[in-house]
Amino acid sequence: MSTQDNSQTNQSTSKPNTTLPNIAFIGLGNMGAPMAENLLKAGYSLSVYDLSEAATKRLQQSGASVADSPKDAIRHAQVVISMLPAGKHVHSVYLGENGEDGLLSELPKGTLVIDSSTIAAADAVTVANAASKLGLEFLDAPVSGGTGGAIAGSLTFIVGGSNNAFAKAEPILAVMGKNIFHAGDHGAGQVAKICNNMLLGILMTGTAEAINLGVKNGLDPKVLSDIMLQSSGRNWTLEVYNPYPQVMENVPSSNGYQGGFMSKLMQKDLHLALQTAQDTHVETPMGAKATELYDDHAIENGDKDFSSIMGRHDHSVLS
Ligand code: NAD
């Protein structure tokens, strides 16, 4: 692992530094947009693409040039970064519909491709192998830290791929993150990421359940949260992402569960973890239970932040 000082993310300059590689950034959603903003602030020249015009407009205002297509975005790029919802989007962008007419086939040899989406390790390996056949370097580099970490430039990157590609990517990732782990070869970043997110899903459902039990027995959710924060139930969701409205400022639960990490994306990650567990004959009963709860919750609340699982217990928080 290497950790680096990312203080450069706080610089307010958006003037491109011509000694830095040009970057094409694809996928400017809740995570991709702030990550791209931090690269611009650090002086990288960015060409951006997203299916949503609203998403690209925000980046244009920050100094990025907006491309009409992924192929347009990569025209002058030495590095490509993607932050897409799921494996099917990554497959379609890089490999195209027939597996051979995607972005990879357009990139000059030696281009570094970094995919930070959370997808199945097997899908990451498929794209990495296709990239390698074309003389490109591919890294799976999923992240942890949420939208708060993306905005602050303090994400954790969990990277799979060659030492050489990792060394090239590290200074770029250090602009967007604070902790950068090299987990192993292609796909290793994704395996580590889904282990983390399976645990996060379990912690969030458990925390929501505990707060609800306290509230239904007369406790104030903030008082209970403060107590658990200083007790053995302490965990990340209580520290920075409390699921109960108005316990914490600047978290999705205090903003109608908008933004953040959508329940349908947590559901996707839990299924990735379960699939990996099944394929490798590993038992994950708690992961299976969290998956069941998010499967049910996402039917009506898929676009709401994953902390809205609180509403499964206390319906009033969703109204
Ligand atoms: P999001 O849905 O907010 O953003 C995805 C963006 O990709 C959207 O703007 C969408 O328009 C764009 N997109 C989809 N298909 C595209 C295509 N073919 N070409 C160009 N753009 C396309 O999702 P997000 O929350 O930013 O998450 C992105 C990835 O990061 C997911 O894999 C998610 O699991 C992972 N992740 C999210 C969080 C979080 O807190 N939100 C944290 C860690 C990891």
Q: Which structural class best describes the helix and strand composition?
A: alpha/beta
Task: Output the CATH homologous superfamily of the largest domain.
Answer: NAD(P)-binding Rossmann-like Domain
User: Please, how many domains?
Assistant: 2
The description of the largest β-sheet is: 6 strands, parallel
Listed once per kind, the bound small molecules are:
nicotinamide-adenine-dinucleotide
Percent of residues in helices:
40-55%
* Strand-residue proportion: 5-15%
- Distance between termini? 44 Å
**CATH structural fold name of the largest domain:** Rossmann fold
Q: So what's the overall shape?
A: globular
**Briefly, what CATH class of the largest domain?**
Alpha Beta
Uncertain regions: pLDDT < 50 for 5+ in a row?
A: 1-13
The total count of strands amounts to 10
Radius of gyration: 20 Å
Explain this structure:
The protein is an alpha/beta fold. It folds into two domains: 7-185, NAD(P)-binding Rossmann-like Domain (Rossmann fold); 192-318, Orthogonal Bundle (N-(1-d-carboxylethyl)-l-norvaline Dehydrogenase, domain 2). Helix content is 45%, strand content 13%. The protein is built from twelve helices and ten strands. The chain has helices at residues 32-41, 53-61, 70-73, 87-95, 121-133, 146-152, 163-176, 188-216, 221-229, 236-240, 263-279, 285-301; strands at 2-3, 23-26, 46-49, 65-66, 79-82, 112-115, 137-140, 143-144, 155-160, 177-184. The strands form two sheets. The chain has a six-stranded parallel beta sheet with strand order 4-3-2-5-6-7, with helices on both faces. It has a four-stranded mixed beta sheet with strand order 1-10-9-8. Helix 1 (32-41) packs parallel to helix 6 (146-152) and helix 11 runs antiparallel to helix 12 (285-301). The longest helix is centred in the middle third of the chain and has 29 residues, at 188-216. The relative contact order is 0.10.
